[in-house]
Amino acid sequence: MKSSPRPRSREAVPPRLPGAAAPISLTLSHAIEHLKAERLPEALDLLRSLHERDLDAAQSALLGLIYLSVEADRDALTWFDRALCVDPKPQGVLAHRALALQRLGRQQEAIQSYDQALAADDLDASGFYHRGNLLRETGRLDEAIASYDAALRLNPAYPEALYAGGTILLEAGQLDASLEFFDEALRLKPDFCQAWFSRGNALQKLNRCHAAIGAYDAALGLASGHPDVLTNRGVAFYEIGRHSEALASYEEALRTRPDFPQALLNRANVYLRIGKPDLALADCEAALKHKPDYLEALSSEGIALRDLGRIRESIASFDTALAFAPGFAHARNNRGAALLLLGDFERGWEDYEFRWIGGETPKRELKLPLPEWSGEVKPGDSILAFDEQGFGDAIQFSRYLPPLIKAGAKVTFFCRKKLHRLLSTLDPAIRLVDTIGNAEDFDCQVALSSFPFILKTRLETIPAATPYIFAEAERVAQWKHRLGPEGFKIGLCWHGNQNVRADPARSIPLAAFAALAAEGVRLIGLQVGAGTEQLDDLPPSMRIERLGVDFDAGPDAFVDTAAVMQGLDLILTCDTSVAHLAGALGRPVWLLLKPVPDWRWLLDRADSPWYPTMRLFRRTGTESWTDLLARVAIALHEHLGPSRQ
Question: Whose CB among 73, 353, 486, 500 lies 3.0–4.6 Å from 103's, allowing a Cys bridge?
Answer without folding.
Answer: 73
